[in-house]
Amino acid sequence: MTAQHEAVIIGAGFGGMGAAIQLDRLGIRDYVILDREAGLGGTWHVNRYPGLAVDIASVTYSYSFEPNPNWSRLFAPGEELKRYAEHVATKYDLRRRMRFGTTVTSARWDETAQRWLVTVDGGEPLSARYLFTATGFLSQPKTPDIPGMDTFAGKIIHSADWDDSYSLDGKRAAIIGTGATAVQLIPELAAKVKELTVYQRTPIWVVPKVDTPIPRPVRRLFARFPGVQRAARLVNSAALETLSTVGVLHYRQARLAAKGAELLARAHLFAQVRDAETRRKLTPGYSFGCKRPTFSNSYFRTFNQPHVRLRTSSIELIRPHGITTADGTTTDIDLLVLATGFDLWETNFPAVEIVGRDGRDLGKWWRDTRFQAYEGVTMPRFPNLVSLNSPYSYTGLSYFWTIEAQMKHIARLFGEMRRRGATTFEVTEQANADFLARMTRRLEDSVFYRGNCATARSYYFNPHGEASLLRPVPVVTGNRDARRFPLDDYAFTGSATTTPADPRSRVGTQ
Ligand code: NAP
């Protein structure tokens, strides 16, 4: 039996829920949301490590149409994000359409039926006219391939699979990784364990976090006058947008301003770390913005504590009771924490096998040609597919800006389909090629190509060496394009349609 639906959404995080809310608004109610996890919220369901918090202020890191007056701090802790996701799912009646513990293995376009056939691990396949993938960017945890890892006799915990039942008290712990996760985790670990050794391969730029509890009267004010919270969101968003536009996208024109962020991070480090050698080790050798920077008031100062060590010599071997580095030092440990991040490009683009028209395999096509997606959401020969976590989709610093721009794109696209009485859409090869050329040109000004990113090891770069993760436009431009993209960039077919052009006749990147 193949269950038939109007749409299947893969992923019950904020991206998938945004798509679902938009479908309801469009009157498309027959959809299911599939998620491999046991609960909703995506990242905020999976990540539960000590110290987890958002590092984009919560007034901005939330749906603009669903403000939450109850954030306890400017930067809410992880469990509040999870609660917010639960609230959104309930309020927008999404839960009854969600199916958990359902891992999608592949999706294939059936040209005859003009539908997607979605297969799931150990379950019946589903058929849908429209497919939305909202599988996130950071959803495939990366375990490093270090010799001897399988011989380790102590406890190993990945940050994305935290074991709350394991007591940290009195342990000799090591942590591998110094990304945004480790920056939040390290001060928390240091407060509990007996010894902490931090293995750093690449230092991270860290700037101060201006965080504070939100007093109850302010929360009441937000609840009573949502306009006040909207104004706070606007101010915070404008500041973030200036930071990313100046520091990242227009590095060529504003190199000095971008250097300001670097200076701030250096001053922060100088103010917090006493030992000059430790400061030197913690100072990145690449330009600010090449790799995702982060915010913390407690990370640097943790390295002043006598039981915390920073090791920068590369890890050679993991032994049953310790770690040996290239300089010959072996450190005995009971606990190994992997804050080693996520596999983006190898396993996440796309996260499941997707085969479109004429047998085009999305992952293979991206790898054989270039990573590309029109407006960060659609690809030629993938009819009726909206791929929310695609190259050039992430716009601005808050993920919610990306989600809401994509919701606008969906509204315009599906609105036009309805106007034409169409049932199938597909972006043209030409529109996709033009978009890719525009993004490539825009990146020329960015820190990725104008700054010094050689040593950053940044996941912003794909395996071809192109910085194709972020969309190199300001958020206002991304929103404007989502509202106004030329409708004949798509071919629409189906009953009673007026098809502007046959995508098969267009030229483009193959
Ligand atoms: P990450 O930024 O990819 O950092 C992974 C760390 O592990 C890096 O320091 C990396 O070193 C190191 N590493 C990986 N493999 C290694 C190996 N084989 N040997 C030695 N070191 C190794 O991952 P993350 O810290 O989990 O953060 C991922 C993203 O999640 C962030 O960039 C951010 O977007 C998001 N995040 C957000 C928040 C928030 O508050 N909103 C909090 C946490 C995370 P190299 O740099 O040398 O590769």
Biggest sheet descriptor: 8 strands, mixed
Task: Kindly report the average pLDDT value.
Answer: 94
How many helical elements?
14
What would the CATH topology of the largest domain be?
Answer: FAD/NAD(P)-binding domain
Gyration radius, in Å: 23 Å
Distance between the termini: 36 Å
Shape: globular
Instruction: Report the bound ligands by name, code or SMILES.
Output: NADP nicotinamide-adenine-dinucleotide phosphate
Describe it.
- This protein is α/β, with parallel strands linked by helices and 510 residues long.
- The protein has two domains: 3-139 and 344-507, FAD/NAD(P)-binding domain; 149-209 and 252-286 and 296-338, FAD/NAD(P)-binding domain, CATH 3.50.50.60.
- The chain is built from 14 helices and 20 strands.
- It has helices at residues 14-25, 43-46, 78-91, 180-192, 216-224, 226-249, 255-272, 276-282, 299-302, 362-368, 399-420, 429-443, 447-450, 475-484; strands at 3-10, 31-34, 98-99, 104-110, 115-120, 126-133, 155-158, 172-176, 195-199, 206-207, 294-295, 308-311, 315-319, 322-325, 330-332, 335-338, 353-355, 385-387, 424-427, 490-493.
- Strands 1, 2, 3, 4, 5, 6, 17 and 18 form an eight-stranded mixed β-sheet that branches. It has a five-stranded parallel β-sheet with strand order 7-16-8-9-12, covered by helices on one side.
- A hairpin with a 2-residue loop joins strand 13 and strand 14.
- Helix 5 (216-224) crosses helix 6.
- The longest helix has 24 residues, at 226-249.
- 47% of the residues are buried.
- Residues 496-510 have low confidence and may be disordered.
- The site of NADP nicotinamide-adenine-dinucleotide phosphate has 25 residues, from helix 4.
- This is Monooxygenase.
- GO terms for molecular function: monooxygenase activity.
- Pfam families: Pyr_redox_3.
